[in-house]
# Entry
Amino acid sequence: MDAKGRLSNDEFLVQLTALFKKKAESGTVFLEQKRLTPYDAVENKHKPSPTDLSELQPSATATKHQLLFRATDGATDKTKKTKISTVVEADALDGFWTKYANTIRGEVTGLKKKDKKKTKGKKKKGGVSK
# Structure
């Protein structure tokens, strides 16, 4: 765990599995993934301004941004709330994403299929006949 309380990538997946098992009977696990932008202390903001088009222009010196993955159990009491997070480098994203997807697929078993409405379709009149 680093200074900001973030776990290593493998430890995050282990903790995520434990969080899913803890909330298996009843409860919710909230997942979040986003690009991690560097904090600008001068402007006191994380996100670049919408008018800054330099981020949109590909350049030879473009930096690859890290990705932040978070998970929480959504408890309303802050003392009982479980929060875990990790930062994934852009180069290691493919391997991590495969492990992350397998973890979620293996643990999310309580989802119900959406009921499809059974409606009788009407045949269109005026169609071309041979």
